[in-house]
Automatic annotation (TrEMBL):
<dbReference type="InterPro" id="IPR011611">
    <property type="entry name" value="PfkB_dom"/>
</dbReference>
<keyword id="KW-0547">Nucleotide-binding</keyword>
<feature type="domain" description="Carbohydrate kinase PfkB">
    <location>
        <begin position="23"/>
        <end position="305"/>
    </location>
</feature>
<dbReference type="InterPro" id="IPR017583">
    <property type="entry name" value="Tagatose/fructose_Pkinase"/>
</dbReference>
<dbReference type="InterPro" id="IPR029056">
    <property type="entry name" value="Ribokinase-like"/>
</dbReference>
<keyword id="KW-0418">Kinase</keyword>
<protein>
    <submittedName>
        <fullName>1-phosphofructokinase family hexose kinase</fullName>
    </submittedName>
</protein>
<comment type="similarity">
    <text>Belongs to the carbohydrate kinase PfkB family.</text>
</comment>
<dbReference type="Pfam" id="PF00294">
    <property type="entry name" value="PfkB"/>
</dbReference>
<dbReference type="InterPro" id="IPR002173">
    <property type="entry name" value="Carboh/pur_kinase_PfkB_CS"/>
</dbReference>
<keyword id="KW-0808">Transferase</keyword>
<dbReference type="InterPro" id="IPR002139">
    <property type="entry name" value="Ribo/fructo_kinase"/>
</dbReference>
<keyword id="KW-0067">ATP-binding</keyword>
Length: 318
């Protein structure tokens, strides 16, 4: 089974202005939707829609509206009770194809709430389960929380993936090779945070046909103990380092409706592929196909398998 952990879930509200965003101006909203959000929840939705067993673990009060949305989605989940409300993240869609995000910090968790959340996660896994630790940490959690969870979960026989950024990602990188996740999913900016290079520079290099920077950075993480490193590069494609080698695949062209949830969809595609026992090149192709499908959907919509078009013929082993 796949278990996702969302330490700082959200209600994702998306508004479409139907025109340009003008600072200081008055705008009329032409579209408005609210969906369950948080990176681990997004991943779980993608896996669930593919018919694979998954459970989403998160903190939320019993009466929080997020839980009603998860029930409506039919997503299996377990929530550790907290006092504060789940945060609301606002995405503003404006022309020409601009996405602006305004994220709340989330409720601060107390010591008892943190202990309850950790215990819920530990009690929800079995031997050989895959646990995906995704997203930012709620206020109150230490920056090295994911490092501690990797150790606890791997000791129970689970395989652990991480998708995060900033200080939590820095803590994971600093713990290598002693404590290493089985799977790491940085985008270009996050990979740049680890190696000290601008994410824009890495994406630009790939767009110009120079894969060495991203390849070497991903392989370095792999050789330092990370089982698989999936780097998503937006329109420039993606790269996977695993099993002592690296593979690259370009992204298929697609109209951009919303980029929110694209990286989480790619993570879901990778985990689905791994559960299906597919080879590394096809894992990469399926991950990018899920990400490409997501950008063509509104808001934080995570694609169904019938909305995904896999182009494995573009995969190149480097």
């Amino acid at each position: 089974m796949i278990v996702t952990f969302t330490a700082n879930p959200s209600l994702d509200r998306t508004v479409d202005l139907g025109g340009p965003l003008v600072p200081g101006g008055v705008h009329r909203i032409s579209g408005d939707s609210t969906q369950p959000g948080g990176k681990g929840i997004n991943v779980a939705l993608g896996v669930h829609r593919a018919g694979i067993d998954v459970t989403a673990i998160l903190p939320a009060a019993p009466s929080d509206p997020l839980l009603a949305l998860l029930e409506a989605e039919g997503l299996p989940h377990r929530a550790a009770p907290i006092v504060g409300p789940v945060r609301t993240n606002l995405t503003v869609l404006s022309s020409p194809q601009v996405t602006t995000k305004l994220n709340e910090p989330g409720a601060t968790l107390g010591e008892e709430e943190i202990a309850g959340l950790e215990q819920l996660l530990i009690s929800s896994i079995g031997d050989e389960d895959i646990v995906m630790l995704s997203g930012s940490l709620a206020p109150g959690l230490p920056a090295d929380e994911y490092v501690r969870l990797i150790e606890l979960l791997q000791a129970r026989g689970a395989r652990v993936g991480v998708d995060t950024s900033d200080a939590p990602l820095g803590a994971v990188a600093a713990a290598l090779p002693g404590t290493a996740p089985d799977f790491l999913k940085p985008n270009a900016e996050e990979l740049g945070q680890i190696v000290g290079v601008s994410g824009d520079v890495l994406e630009s290099q790939v767009s110009d046909g120079n894969l060495e920077g991203v390849r070497d950075a991903a392989l370095n993480l792999h050789h330092r103990g990370v089982g698989a490193v999936l780097v998503t590069l937006g329109a420039a494609g993606g790269l996977l380092a695993t099993e002592g080698a690296a593979w690259y695949c370009p992204s298929a062209s697609s109209p951009v409706v919303s980029t929110v949830g694209a990286g989480d969809s790619a993570t879901a595609g990778y985990l689905i592929s791994r559960e299906l026992g597919e080879a590394p090149g096809l894992r990469l192709a399926r991950a990018l196909a899920y990400g490409t499908a997501a950008v063509g959907l509104p808001g934080t919509t995570i694609p169904r398998p019938d909305q995904v078009r896999i182009a494995a013929d573009g995969v190149v082993r480097l």
